[in-house]
Design goal:
The complex is a heterodimer of chains A (211) and B (526). Chain A has ten helices and five strands; from the N terminus they run αβαβαβαβαβααααα. The longest helix of chain A has 31 residues. Chain B is an alpha+beta fold and 526 residues long. Helix content of chain B is 45%, strand content 24%. In chain B, the strands form four sheets. In chain B, strands 2-1-5-4-3 form a five-stranded antiparallel sheet, with helices on both faces. In chain B, a hairpin with a 5-residue loop joins β8 and β9. The two termini of chain B are 86 Å apart. The chains are: A alpha/beta (211), B alpha+beta (526). Chains A and B meet through α2 of A and α10, α11 and α12 of B.
């Protein structure tokens, strides 16, 4: 499990947007020294043209000719991209920082930053992206499994989550206790759950997603 | 009027003789009457007195002068008819004439009933008979009132002139052709610590400090030789080791076309010079304060500029550190490349701080030959971040054939930073919200006598409030400015003999324009 996460994170790309060549190249050098692939862009507009939701993390300068860092963040949100963003700026004005963080930036870093701040932020962004993507994948799996249940099995699942004992279920549905026990086993198998607790968690996740 | 009858000695002589004597007597009477007639026509007063001081004769002018008739005078002594204040001087003069038996001259004066004073100059002499005995006094008196008034007036004017010369703080002094001091005022003596008793009537050169003496000698000679007015300035050391700055004027002293000497006027300009220098220092301080203030307003852009290379350096350093940590994957080529970049970035940072330092340093005005386009380029770097934030790309159109100008680099940079800042900030005003594509154009052009730089924007244009001149101090449309920027810019440009103007351009925005002439430095050598 841990190994798998690391591998996924390793494959993720760090996108660097900065209109200043030296700043852009130096961030790429830092990321490459940590064995991560990088892609550099000299403007927010250029990045938006290319980006199609790939896994990774975005490092952008705040002050740029054309669209600035904050505007880039807002545009990405409008387009439904959830990529974690690290904003760097050489002169942070508090209102800009607040807005940037509100729009979901991982952090806003002052140039020059302290010690390992930039890499820590990038790493945090990559991990966040990985977690988000994994959570999404798990949700998709649960949805798929739920869909494989038939109407009768769905009824049993709802009653299990409601905490009803088998006897009550049998009475309510007017079937034998054995039938209830068989259907119950099928539900556990189809959803790949071991315990009632796991089952409850899946249903709650599903409800949250649907809402 | 008549001469008092003298008894004739020829009385009772032979008839012929008597007739003859009678003829002679008649002739004498005729002559005396003629003489009396003459004496009555002259303006001088004539009188005769006998030995007892009784008046025996006065002419018409005498009676007129005192407003008397002959009856009031003849046979009387002077205390009986003269004004009281004249009695004593007349009496002592008469005594002197009689005692010493020689002529005397005296001046007397008296006041008439109308309050006017009259002056007389009187000559008195003894009268002798044929044996040489004194028989009386003859006197001729002249009214010298008019002369006295003129003399008094002259004296008064001379006195006034002397007082003025004495109180003037300038040194005023006159020398003859041999450089002997004929006249000098108080300032001349006190300011130079000279003793009038030792210097008046002599050549003052030996008493002066060497340098001053040299200049004095040369300039005096020049006036005498060239026979014309000369003027100039000189700096001479003082006794207490300081310096005195003097302005002088010398002109020939002419009398009927001949040069009789030299008139000199010297003014001490030391304090005026000091005041001028102080004001120059104050101006330098003001310009410095204004630069500091504009840097304060540009701090965001400057922080960005300074931090940019530091950011890169930090990234490269971290990258190298990471590369060195896992040595199995050590990429030496990359690491070397990164070290090179660090060096370059450190260099860039150094340049930025040096430029910043020279901009905020309190420097005296410094004239140097400079490339105006370079000043423009460096000024643009100060504004790079401001323009980015305002989403303006500053366009440039710089002429390649600009003459080399002699200017104060930092001050001209200050003007450009100010004009560029104004151009960018014009888009922050509410009126500018409709401007879709923001433009600022900086252009330089060659001019016949120098060069011109213009900063044009397509903002809402110059907003003139109540006809006030925006180049005047404290005129501002901004919330956070003193309104000194343009005034200071104008001062700087005018100190360079240039001109700062503005107009509405074809875009409807404002154009600020300044000219700088090619300096004629080589002529300024003194």
């Amino acid at each position: 499990m841990t190994t798998e996460t690391t591998t996924n994170e390793m494959a993720a790309t760090v996108f660097v947007v900065d209109d200043e060549e030296q700043a852009r190249e130096s961030v790429c050098a830092l990321v490459q020294s940590m064995h991560h692939p990088t892609q550099a862009f000299q403007s927010a507009e250029e990045f938006l043209q290319v980006y199609n939701g790939d896994a990774g993390c975005l490092v952008t300068d705040y002050r740029m000719i054309g669209m600035n860092g904050l505007e880039l963040q807002e545009t990405l949100l409008e387009q439904g991209h959830e990529i974690p963003v690290v904003v760097v700026t050489a002169f942070a004005r508090t209102p800009v920082t607040v807005r940037s963080i509100q729009k979901g930036a991982v952090t806003m870093l002052d140039k020059p930053y302290n010690e390992d701040d930039l890499w820590s932020a990038i790493r945090e962004g990559l991990v966040l992206d990985q977690q988000r993507r994994q959570a999404k994948q798990e949700q998709a799996e649960v949805t798929m499994r739920m869909a494989s249940l038939n109407k009768k099995e769905r009824q049993i699942l709802d009653l299990i989550v409601a905490g009803e004992p088998n006897k009550v279920m049998a009475n309510q549905l007017d079937v034998s206790l054995r039938t209830i026990e068989n259907r119950r086993r099928t539900v556990f198998t189809k959803l790949g759950a071991q315990t009632v607790a796991e089952l409850v968690a899946m249903v709650l996740t599903q409800r949250a997603t649907n809402n | 009027l008549h001469l008092e009858n003298q008894e004739s000695d020829s009385k009772g002589g032979l008839s012929q003789l008597g007739d003859r004597a009678g003829q002679l007597e008649a002739e004498a009477v005729r002559q005396s009457q003629q003489l009396i007639g003459v004496l009555d026509t002259i303006n001088d007063r004539v009188f005769l007195k006998d030995i007892q001081g009784r008046v025996t004769y006065v002419n018409r002018a005498f009676l007129k002068a005192y407003g008397l008739s002959a009856v009031e005078v003849i046979g009387k002594s002077h205390e009986q008819f003269l004004p009281a204040e004249m009695v004593l001087p007349c009496q002592s003069a008469d005594q002197a004439v009689l005692q010493r038996e020689e002529p005397i001259c005296l001046e007397t004066n008296w006041q008439d009933d109308a309050g006017n004073r009259h002056w007389s100059e009187t000559h008195k002499a003894p009268l002798h008979d044929t044996e040489g005995n004194i028989t009386g006094i003859v006197g001729v008196s002249r009214d010298i009132t008019a002369r006295r008034i003129t003399e008094d007036e002259l004296k008064r004017q001379k006195n006034l002139l002397e007082q003025i010369i004495e109180t003037v703080p300038d040194w005023i002094f006159v020398k003859d052709r041999q450089r002997r001091l004929l006249l000098a005022n108080r300032s001349f003596y006190t300011e130079q610590g000279l003793d009038p008793g030792k210097t008046l009537g002599r050549d003052s050169t030996p008493f002066l400090p060497t340098k001053l003496a040299e200049i004095a000698y040369e300039t005096d000679t020049q006036v005498l030789v060239e026979k014309r007015k000369i003027s100039g300035e000189m700096t001479v050391p003082t006794v207490d080791g300081k310096e005195k700055h003097l302005e002088f004027r010398k002109l020939p002293l002419l009398e009927e076309g001949e040069i009789k000497g030299i008139v000199s006027v010297c003014r001490d300009l030391t304090e005026a010079k000091e005041a001028e220098e102080q004001s120059k220092r104050n101006e330098t301080l003001l310009l410095h304060a204004a630069r500091l203030s504009s840097i304060g307003e540009l701090v965001a852009g400057i922080a960005h500029e300074v931090n940019q290379p530091l950011f890169s350096i930090l990234n490269y350093a971290k990258a190298i550190e990471n590369a060195l940590r896992d040595d199995e994957a050590l990429d030496l080529t990359a690491a070397r490349n990164w070290i090179g970049k660090i060096r370059k970035e450190a260099d860039r940072g150094g340049k930025i701080t040096r430029r910043l330092k020279s901009f905020v340093k309190p420097t005296e005005t410094q004239q140097e030959a400079a490339d105006l386009n370079q000043v423009v380029a460096e000024s643009l770097e100060f504004l790079a971040m401001e323009s980015r934030d305002a989403k303006i790309v500053i366009e440039t159109n710089l002429a390649a054939d600009l003459p080399t100008l002699v200017l104060d680099y930092i001050q001209i940079q200050q003007v450009l930073v100010n004009l560029l800042k104004n151009a960018i900030e014009t888009f922050n005003t509410p009126d500018a919200s409709q401007v879709l594509s923001r433009r600022v154009l900086v252009a330089s052009r060659r001019k016949t006598q120098g060069a011109e730089v213009s900063v044009a924007d397509n903002g809402p244009g110059v907003f003139i409030k109540d006809g006030q001149n925006i180049l005047d101090p404290f005129q501002t449309t901004k919330h956070d400015g003193l309104g000194l920027g343009l005034t200071i810019s104008k001062t700087i440009i005018e100190a360079h003999q240039g001109e700062l103007t503005y107009h509405t351009n074809d875009w409807g925005g404002a154009t600020f324009c300044f000219t700088l002439p090619v300096s004629l430095q080589e002529d300024c050598e003194t």
